[in-house]
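Instructor's aside before we start: the two examples that follow are unrelated to each other. I chose them only because their records fit on one page, so don't look for a connection. First example below.
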Amino acid sequence: MPTFVSLLRFTQKGLEAIKDGPARLEAARETYRSAGAKLREFYLVTAVVVAEAPDDETAVKLSLAIGARGNVRIETCRAFPEEECRRIVAGLPAVK
């Protein structure tokens, strides 16, 4: 399943209710599960989520749904593992 990395930044609303963060994280895990995806890891940095989703559309829908709750601003990027990266780079056209 493709891997996606989401960078989250707390909104004012999210900071005001920071003590509810663990419950919000569990709610987010359930949101991912119900979409057929998996929230693999969560780190409190600015907050980084590493998740797997069956496709890009599901990942985008999850980002929009989590962001719409108003507690974080979210940016999601597709993460390509080393093997895929090597294949992609090998297929690049020559630059003149």
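Example two begins here.
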Amino acid sequence: MSESNNRMTPPLPYLNAEFLKSREARIIRIVAEYLEPHTRLRQHRIRDTIVFFGSARSLPPETARAKLESIEKEIELAGRTPELEVAHKQAEQAGKLARYYEDAMELARRITEWSKGLTGHHHFIVCSGGSHGMMEAANRGASLARGKTIGLNIQLPLEQEVNQYVSRELIFNFHYFFMRKFWFVYPAKALVVFPGGFGTMDELFEVLTLIQTKMPRKTMPVILFGKEFWDEVFNFVALVRWGVVSESDLAIFHKTDSVDDAFDHLTTRLGQLYLTPKGLEQVKLT
């Protein structure tokens, strides 16, 4: 056998895993995180979404209640120690947050039932970040209505786990945060934001800025759910008083504490914007 035949033939460049993970191939990875979700959404005939954001730390109501009851039993047995006092306050706060888990689940369920009645499984699909807490609640509500539901997962150093309620064929996994953000916004026709932390605020203010600057050509209703939380965490009126936003900018979002009100606001606005003879056709993925 000749020496040349003994040499190993290198893999084709697009099959070379080491190259594809290299710095030089970054643009290929970025393009892949655009093309693969685009292709898969088209395959499943999904044209647009309603995105739910909120804390991954929110517990389901039954879990929060069990945790509070467990700590109260400990207090009965051991008395009120400083550590148990702190744990008790945290458990009470977790119970308040869990109420929003229930609301997110119910709103997602109702939105999914409504959208299925209009267009089957192809429009206004509930989408979340795919993790636990409020994201799980949204996917869970859509699943209860037997609807498709999307999870946009992100690879983190401590890998984020996808919740069990995301439709298996609609789990998307991203390396780049900015590509994940793109897929949150590009097909979205509405945004529902529940109490959350840094990640939730990041997504919220990015979308508010895009709407304020009219960068998406579409109109996107935004719901801030949980007046007590939003009024305590942000003084939006002060932004107007300081002259850093216009009063009209506060009309970008609608604050509410009611699933009924959120549902009515969303379905009314989406109906006005998109449920016209040309509306849904004009905003489909292209």
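Strands lie at 49-53, 125-128, 149-154, 171-174, 188-193, 222-225, 253-256.
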